Amino acid sequence: MLDIDRALSLASDKEIFPIIDKVLQGERLPFEDGVKLFKTNDILTLGYLANYITEKKNGKYAYFVINRQINPTNVCVLDCKFCAFAQMDKNDPRAYELSYDQIVEKARYAVENGATEVHIVGGLHPEWDFQTYLNIVSIIKKNFPNLHIKAFTAVEIDYFSQISGLSYEEVLIKLKEAGLGSLPGGGAEIFSPNIRRIIAPKKIGYKKYLEIHKTAHRLGLHSTTTMLYGHVESYEDRVDHMLKIREAQDETGGFTCFIPLAYQPENNELPVYDFTTGIDDLKTIAVSRLMLDNIDHVKAYWVMIGEKTAQVALNFGADDMDGTVMEEKIAHFAGAKSPTQQQKEKLIRLIKEAGKIPVERDTLYNPIRIYE
Ligand code: V47
């Protein structure tokens, strides 16, 4: 008897038996199956199935990147209810704006510590023009030509288009010419317009978010994509979100990775005060892996689910842990209990002890070093 048959013969939830067959036959799962998978308590079967798909796609490899986050400013015109990072008033003592020199120094620290990537996300500053954001990219590129600049969410790209009068395509072409390497996936939150009205009323809707990513893909830029879960959304909203991403990926193939972001509940305006639970984190990773059959990688973002859950998630459908990060603000302002940075050696240990083979990767998942 094959290992997979033996393991799945122990499955206990009849509701998911037909889904098991579909997964084993490589069939695409519809909306209803995603919801059933979220509702099952047969968490081990769910994890086994998700891990089966991960290993079919990526073998035993689990990835990490040596990277640094840089948040140039937290001054932001949006007023997202879950966000503890942004400051509407630039005179608030918690508001900050980094100078070009400070940004270059942060990038220099990253390079000196082995980083291949900087991940840049910040606020929509009411007084910064598009040129300021372009300069951030070009000044880093000029000083560190080999560093991959993963910068600016679709929400920021839409803002640049508004303040410059340029189309999404023109904004992205200018950023690419300045040295942009790829787009990060933030700002997706939950696509459901009803939930978005509650948690992020001023933020662009999902159609624009996906249009911007698809435009980037057509210009040869890859991107990642995310989902903020664990607040006021339902399982149905999560599955709907995943399917909209799956449809966009069918069109362009440009998403490298899906990242479920666990809601952090402190210092924000959303009246949801609990962190996500370990089971919900694992289910969300596993269901993502099973629904998003056309995305190669699913990330267990240790910053938001903690190192221990992220490690376990490597056996529940995830094959990537993000990276060293070096300085994290967005999750920590909202109460994240994880460290704000990570040593490469720790990531290697977490991956090895999960029974996987650590691979240091670049932003686009090219292996840099395999730790057999
Ligand atoms: O856009 C904000 C989210 C995102 C909270 O692309 C929150 O590889 C949880 O997108 N609780 C920024 N989440 C981080 C992000 C990201 C992180 C790591 C890797 C990648 C990638 C992307 O964080 C925001 C928003 O969606 N966020 N506040 C909060 N209270």
Automatic annotation (TrEMBL):
Highest taxon of the lineage: Bacteria
Pathway membership: Quinol/quinone metabolism; menaquinone biosynthesis
GO-annotated molecular function: 4 iron, 4 sulfur cluster binding; 7,8-didemethyl-8-hydroxy-5-deazariboflavin synthase activity; aminodeoxyfutalosine synthase activity; iron ion binding
BP terms from Gene Ontology: menaquinone biosynthetic process
Binding-site positions, S-adenosyl-L-methionine: F82, E189
Top enzyme category: transferase
Cofactor(s) named in the record: [4Fe-4S] cluster
InterPro entries: Aldolase_TIM, CofH/MnqC-like_C, Elp3/MiaA/NifB-like_rSAM, F420, FO_synthase_su2, MqnE, rSAM, rSAM_sf
EC number: 2.5.1.120
Record field: catalytic activity: 3-[(1-carboxyvinyl)-oxy]benzoate + S-adenosyl-L-methionine + H2O = 6-amino-6-deoxyfutalosine + hydrogencarbonate + L-methionine + H(+)
Family annotation (PROSITE patterns): RADICAL_SAM
Cofactor binding annotation: Binds 1 [4Fe-4S] cluster. The cluster is coordinated with 3 cysteines and an exchangeable S-adenosyl-L-methionine.
Gene3D superfamilies: Aldolase class I (3.20.20.70)
Binding site for [4Fe-4S] cluster: C76, C80, C83
Radical SAM core domain segment(s): 62-296
The keyword Iron appears for this protein: yes
UniProt keyword terms in alphabetical order: 4Fe-4S, Iron, Iron-sulfur, Menaquinone biosynthesis, Metal-binding, S-adenosyl-L-methionine, Transferase
Protein's UniProt keywords contain Transferase: yes
Family label: Belongs to the radical SAM superfamily. MqnE family.
Function: Radical SAM enzyme that catalyzes the addition of the adenosyl radical to the double bond of 3-[(1-carboxyvinyl)oxy]benzoate, leading to aminodeoxyfutalosine (AFL), a key intermediate in the formation of menaquinone (MK, vitamin K2) from chorismate.
Stated name of the protein: Aminodeoxyfutalosine synthase
Taxonomic source organism: Sulfurihydrogenibium azorense (strain DSM 15241 / OCM 825 / Az-Fu1)
Lineage: Bacteria, Pseudomonadati, Aquificota, Aquificia, Aquificales
